[in-house]
Amino acid sequence: MPAAPAPAPERDRPATADDAAPAGLRERKKRATRHALRLAALRLVAERGVDAVTTDEIAAAADVSVRTFFNYFASKEDALVGNDPTLGETLVAELVERPADEPPLESLRAVLTSYARSAPLDGEVWRLRMRVVEANPHLLPALHGASAQLERRIAAAVAERLDVDPVTDPYPRLVVAVAVAAVRAATQHSGATGFARPLDTIVGEYFDALAAGLPAPPPRPGGDPARTGPARVPAPGRA
Amino acid sequence: MPAAPAPAPERDRPATADDAAPAGLRERKKRATRHALRLAALRLVAERGVDAVTTDEIAAAADVSVRTFFNYFASKEDALVGNDPTLGETLVAELVERPADEPPLESLRAVLTSYARSAPLDGEVWRLRMRVVEANPHLLPALHGASAQLERRIAAAVAERLDVDPVTDPYPRLVVAVAVAAVRAATQHSGATGFARPLDTIVGEYFDALAAGLPAPPPRPGGDPARTGPARVPAPGRA
DNA sequence: CCTCAAGGTGCAGAGTCTGCAACTTCGCAG
DNA sequence: CTGCGAAGTTGCAGACTCTGCACCTTGAGG
């Protein structure tokens, strides 16, 4: 099933922004600091729990002042579960390059699988993040909230592509909300199953399921009560 | 067009929990205090903005101590955008009463439209909430996050109904994430259009769109560039 | 009445986060 | 290579959020 016939080109530059873009020294240092802070936060929290780690300690671990920590992240939670600030524009940029007549769900599929392909580059962050959220469920709201601004931004872009009013027309909001929800579900699934299969594959399958109208899963095929296969999305793919 | 043929019974007791359940004096007082606090918070923030209102002032406006405020809400944001703490169990309770062989998306549709029917009972809270979030976009993450715990709880219930493993099986997470996203999108749309049409109708339409695989909207019917109709979801309904 | 438990309150203290005013470092001409 | 402006870092003061704890107050039920 990962043998998708590549329905569209989708061969751009993913660019997670944590990417190794060869920029000036300043820019590189900034990225490094940001990354160091995030990693320090995640590592500390992973071993002690959210409440037992202060911004003081995180900053110290990354060798910067607390003030600097707050120059990079709006809050402790942001450091743990926040998205890269450039992600929104990156995704929108990829979106506008999709063929204008492509159905929105299809465009989003392309853009988001592309994202899912590049995101896990930063393996440790992902793993830690999932572990930390699992261990501190009260971070869940923050995790979900992290994509809120993103969602709004992308919905605006979709509205523009469709040439409809972004506030009164329901469609862009809906597709984007649903698409982002699917990506989040995929991410959680990926984390819950130990990152066994590539994230973009899972995201692709979820979009298949979406496009098929989320059909109910096979109604108890055999009768084995402990059915717990690795991952089995209803729709096999629209290849 | 809201003349939906009522595909399923869905005639239970919605019960928003801000419901007027005739309980003991203690219980009534608690509800009243909670409501007073929420309302006070929303009103103050609506006119001054989030950062210009302190928990002190909110508590004062509701005639309780700050400490009590925090007994009711985990944070200022929680008071503004948080869900009622009983909502999760209420929804799950309704969910388990759906016929066992009903497709999950259908069950969720029933439960969530029912919720959408009862929620707007508390008109002022809804209106203020939407207004406040619109005026303070940095609340958006909190708004999205508010349903995170809910989502997890419902997904667990769906997994149980389907008798699959809630952590390794992707389906429950996906349907629920998507369904909740649809409800949120509907809520936002409803707010953005001045609550012109009943929320449950909108939610119903969104579920139609979901079940139909989120088809692209009609590709520019005439050619009028300023097309801004009241609300026009692609799928007319699967009646 | 009387008692118990649930809820409300005040206080102290830890921690988060922001504005401001230096100070240091990078990028870029001249 | 030298110097200047922009960008980034830092420390500090201070407002605010949130929690634990001990002590009251009040509704529920004998």
Overview of this protein structure:
- Chain A is mainly α.
- Helices cover 59% and strands 0% of the residues of chain A.
- Chain A has helices at residues 25-48, 55-61, 66-72, 76-81, 87-96, 104-118, 123-135, 140-146, 148-162, 170-192, 199-211.
- In chain A, helix 1 runs parallel beside helix 7 (123-135), helix 2 (55-61) packs across helix 3 (66-72) and helix 9 packs across helix 10 (170-192).
- The longest helix of chain A has 24 residues, at 25-48.
- Chain A is globular.
- Residues 1-21 and 223-239 of chain A have low confidence and may be disordered.
- Chains A and B meet through helix 8, helix 9, helix 10 and helix 11 of A and helix 8, helix 9, helix 10 and helix 11 of B.
- The structure holds a DNA duplex (30 and 30 nucleotides).
Question: Mean of the pLDDT scores of chain A?
Answer: 85
Biggest sheet character of chain A: none
Which two protein chains have the largest interface (Cβ within 8 Å of the partner's Cβ), and how many residues from each?
Answer: A-B, 64 and 64 residues
Number of helices of chain A: 11
Identify low-pLDDT runs of chain A: 1-21, 223-239
This entry's quaternary arrangement is homodimer
Classification by helices and strands of chain A? mainly alpha
> Radius of gyration of chain A, Cα only, in angstroms?
19 Å
Specify the overall morphology of chain A: globular
Helix content percent band of chain A: 55-70%
The N- and C-terminal alpha carbons of chain A lie at a distance of 9 Å
What is the helix/strand order of chain A? HHHHHHHHHHH
Strand fraction of chain A equals under 5%
Number of DSSP strands of chain A? 0
